[in-house]
Amino acid sequence: VQLQASGGGTVQAGGSLGLSCVASERIPRTYGWYWFRQAPGKERESVAAISVGGVRKFYADSVKGRFIISRDDAKNSVYLQMSNLKPEDTAVYYCAVHPSFSPVGRAWDSMYDRGEGTQVTVSS
Protein backbone atom coordinates (compact mmCIF):
# COMPACT_ATOMS: atom_id res chain seq x y z
CA VAL A 1 0.00 0.00 0.00
CA GLN A 2 1.29 3.44 -0.91
CA LEU A 3 0.53 6.38 1.34
CA GLN A 4 0.81 9.90 -0.02
CA ALA A 5 0.82 12.94 2.23
CA SER A 6 0.01 16.38 0.89
CA GLY A 7 -0.93 19.86 2.02
CA GLY A 8 2.41 21.06 3.30
CA GLY A 9 3.70 24.54 2.64
CA THR A 10 5.07 27.68 4.22
CA VAL A 11 3.07 29.62 6.75
CA GLN A 12 3.75 32.35 9.25
CA ALA A 13 3.77 31.62 12.96
CA GLY A 14 0.25 31.57 14.29
CA GLY A 15 -1.14 30.37 11.00
CA SER A 16 -2.86 27.12 10.03
CA LEU A 17 -2.34 24.28 7.59
CA GLY A 18 -4.26 21.12 6.84
CA LEU A 19 -2.47 17.94 5.84
CA SER A 20 -4.03 15.01 4.03
CA CYS A 21 -2.83 11.48 3.47
CA VAL A 22 -4.49 9.02 1.12
CA ALA A 23 -3.79 5.33 0.68
CA SER A 24 -3.63 3.68 -2.71
CA GLU A 25 -5.65 0.73 -1.43
CA ARG A 26 -8.31 0.15 1.15
CA ILE A 27 -7.06 0.41 4.71
CA PRO A 28 -8.97 -1.79 7.16
CA ARG A 29 -11.15 0.30 9.43
CA THR A 30 -9.60 -1.44 12.43
CA TYR A 31 -6.18 -0.01 11.62
CA GLY A 32 -4.77 2.96 13.42
CA TRP A 33 -3.57 5.94 11.43
CA TYR A 34 -0.51 7.89 12.54
CA TRP A 35 1.23 11.15 11.77
CA PHE A 36 4.97 11.60 12.34
CA ARG A 37 7.34 14.46 11.74
CA GLN A 38 11.07 14.92 11.42
CA ALA A 39 12.79 18.24 11.89
CA PRO A 40 16.31 18.88 10.60
CA GLY A 41 18.87 17.22 12.84
CA LYS A 42 16.22 15.52 14.96
CA GLU A 43 14.75 12.06 15.17
CA ARG A 44 11.40 11.28 13.62
CA GLU A 45 8.70 11.61 16.25
CA SER A 46 5.14 10.46 16.63
CA VAL A 47 2.81 13.46 16.48
CA ALA A 48 -0.73 12.11 16.46
CA ALA A 49 -2.69 8.91 16.06
CA ILE A 50 -6.33 7.91 15.70
CA SER A 51 -8.09 4.65 16.45
CA VAL A 52 -10.88 2.81 14.68
CA GLY A 53 -13.90 5.05 14.31
CA GLY A 54 -11.92 8.01 15.63
CA VAL A 55 -12.91 7.07 19.17
CA ARG A 56 -9.43 7.37 20.64
CA LYS A 57 -6.70 9.82 19.75
CA PHE A 58 -3.12 10.41 20.71
CA TYR A 59 -1.29 13.71 20.54
CA ALA A 60 2.29 14.52 21.41
CA ASP A 61 2.47 17.03 24.24
CA SER A 62 4.04 19.58 21.91
CA VAL A 63 0.94 19.71 19.68
CA LYS A 64 -1.93 19.14 22.10
CA GLY A 65 -4.62 21.77 21.75
CA ARG A 66 -3.27 22.90 18.37
CA PHE A 67 -3.46 19.85 16.09
CA ILE A 68 -6.50 17.74 15.28
CA ILE A 69 -6.32 14.32 13.64
CA SER A 70 -9.29 12.84 11.80
CA ARG A 71 -9.95 9.98 9.41
CA ASP A 72 -12.31 9.14 6.59
CA ASP A 73 -12.35 5.41 6.00
CA ALA A 74 -14.53 5.72 2.91
CA LYS A 75 -11.72 7.73 1.33
CA ASN A 76 -8.86 5.71 2.84
CA SER A 77 -7.57 8.94 4.25
CA VAL A 78 -6.31 10.62 7.37
CA TYR A 79 -6.04 14.34 8.03
CA LEU A 80 -4.09 16.61 10.34
CA GLN A 81 -5.46 20.08 10.94
CA MET A 82 -2.73 22.25 12.40
CA SER A 83 -3.39 25.64 13.94
CA ASN A 84 -1.43 28.22 15.91
CA LEU A 85 1.68 26.91 14.20
CA LYS A 86 5.07 27.64 15.70
CA PRO A 87 8.54 27.72 14.11
CA GLU A 88 9.37 24.54 16.02
CA ASP A 89 6.63 22.76 14.06
CA THR A 90 8.83 23.05 10.98
CA ALA A 91 9.47 19.52 9.76
CA VAL A 92 8.68 16.94 7.13
CA TYR A 93 5.38 15.31 8.08
CA TYR A 94 4.67 11.66 7.32
CA CYS A 95 1.64 9.41 7.62
CA ALA A 96 1.58 5.72 8.40
CA VAL A 97 -0.74 2.91 9.45
CA HIS A 98 -0.55 0.07 11.93
CA PRO A 99 -2.96 -2.79 12.61
CA SER A 100 -3.61 -1.36 16.07
CA PHE A 101 -3.86 1.98 17.80
CA SER A 102 -1.43 2.96 20.54
CA PRO A 103 -2.44 5.67 23.02
CA VAL A 104 1.23 6.63 23.40
CA GLY A 105 2.16 6.68 19.73
CA ARG A 106 4.52 4.28 17.98
CA ALA A 107 8.01 4.17 16.58
CA TRP A 108 8.34 4.83 12.87
CA ASP A 109 10.10 1.54 12.25
CA SER A 110 7.19 -0.38 13.71
CA MET A 111 4.64 1.00 11.26
CA TYR A 112 2.97 -1.38 8.81
CA ASP A 113 2.87 0.98 5.85
CA ARG A 114 4.66 4.30 5.69
CA GLY A 115 4.31 7.18 3.28
CA GLU A 116 6.44 9.87 1.77
CA GLY A 117 6.48 13.16 3.57
CA THR A 118 5.27 16.68 2.99
CA GLN A 119 7.29 19.71 4.11
CA VAL A 120 5.83 22.17 6.58
CA THR A 121 7.76 25.36 7.19
CA VAL A 122 6.68 27.89 9.79
CA SER A 123 8.37 31.27 9.64
CA SER A 124 8.68 33.56 12.63
How would you briefly describe this protein structure?
This protein has 124 residues and is an all-beta fold.
Give your account of this protein's structure.
By secondary structure, the protein is mainly beta. The chain contains no helices and eleven strands. Helices cover 0% and strands 48% of the residues. The mean pLDDT is 96.
Please tag this protein with its features.
seven-stranded mixed β-sheet; four-stranded antiparallel β-sheet; 11 strands; mainly beta; globular; 48% strand; 124 residues
Helices and strands in order, then pairings?
Blueprint: E1 3-6, E2 9-12, E3 17-23, E4 32-38, E5 45-50, E6 57-59, E7 67-72, E8 77-82, E9 91-98, E10 113-114, E11 118-123
Parallel strand pairs: 2-11
Antiparallel strand pairs: 1-3, 3-8, 4-5, 4-9, 5-6, 7-8, 9-10, 9-11
